[in-house]
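Researcher: Please predict.
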Amino acid sequence: MHSQLYIQRNVVFQAKSAIIALLFACVLMVSCSQSSTVIETVSLDENSVLLVHSENISALISDSGITRGRMKAKVQDIISTKEGTVWYFPEGFYMERFDSLLQVEASVEADTAYRFLKTNVWRLVKNVKGVNLEQTEFTTSELFFDEKKQIIYSDSLVGIKEHEDETILYGIGFWSRQDMTKYTLRKVFDSSFTVRENESDSLKTP
């Protein structure tokens, strides 16, 4: 079962590649379950080919005709690399997921984001912040979202702040289902630790 992504945007593209790239852009939020996490690598180098450049992205995400969420970004590039096609959001990214009543049950934002079309895995980096329906806040420098397994995970330092609670719980390593409930925080530390930005572009898995 595939989801459809309806996008209103200004597109600057290379004519011969645009149709192929836009076919990729129609696939989002596929559902199935497996047991292991996905290892992703990407090299945005001189061998990469820009297929589509888009600005002022505002997209609704639907599944079987039902609206499931919304995505916003200032810039989106669809790039062909030696590892496969990648969506690249270099100037900020925001996504929210709706429940059956169209309430926001979870949201996430980051300075930079990637989506690997080959595996349907997202990578969010730099100033990553997630919020669930109970207004619990999750902050980290790097976060992954696997659409197929419907899980969120990180191997970086993660801070968790409960709603109206000033105490922040820190741990290295995090796992949660996609609505950011029933989460697991590993290697827990006290609130004297602070989240440090991870500037590395290397990918990590829990």
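Model: The mean pLDDT is 74.
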